[in-house]
Structures are given as structure tokens and as C-alpha cells.
Amino acid sequence: NPDSNPIGLLRTPIGEEGFMDNTKQIIECRLRLQKEVEKIDGIFILGEPQAMILCFGSNEFPVLNVGDLMSKRGWSLNSLQHPDSIHLCCTMRTVGPQVEADFISDLKECVKVAKARADAN
To answer: pLDDT by residue (tens digit) across 81-95?
Structure first.
């Protein structure tokens, strides 16, 4: 059917314009978070993020421990392997100054804890 919209954008309550606005906000959120993550000693961004995924790893300590610590603080990050890394998928739930600040603050604290544990071993 040539009139069909396979992903339903125009049939959603936000419509195409709302979808495009949300997408812009999500990409801008990822860009802001990426700039802050790049400042955190001990972790680095993997690849060159193009959309909503922000993936980071570490050569100094087991970065998967950061994911576990962040989970205890209520964040839902995905653990990856080869290389070990963690990624955040930015969504409308992560957009906003307070949520972004809380994420970075928690991430900094969890990185410190993970580094300290690695150094103690």
C-alpha cells in the first residue's frame, strides 16, 4: 500500500514533527553527555557516536564494574564485550539538564569506586 507508513510516525500522537523534535533533543543530549564523559579520567568513548548511543570503556580498570555500580543507582546501561564496554542509549527519559547532570555525577562517582577497587587488588 503506497499510503502506508511502516513505522507509524504520522499515526503517533506526536506526529512526524514531534518525532523529529524528539530526535533532535536526544542527539543533543548525547552530544552534551559525550562532552562530559570525555572529561572523566579513566574512561574513553568508543567509536564516533552518530546517533543516540554513547559507548565507553577503560584501559585502567574493569569498566563492567561501572555498569554494575550505575545499576545500583537506578541507571540502565548495557554491558558489552570484545572489548568490554558499557553503553547508554539516550532517549527522551535521559533528556534534560537535571537528568544529564545526575547521570554524569553518578558516573564520576562510580568510576572512582571502580578505579579504587581495581587499585586495591
So the answer is: 999 999 999 999 999
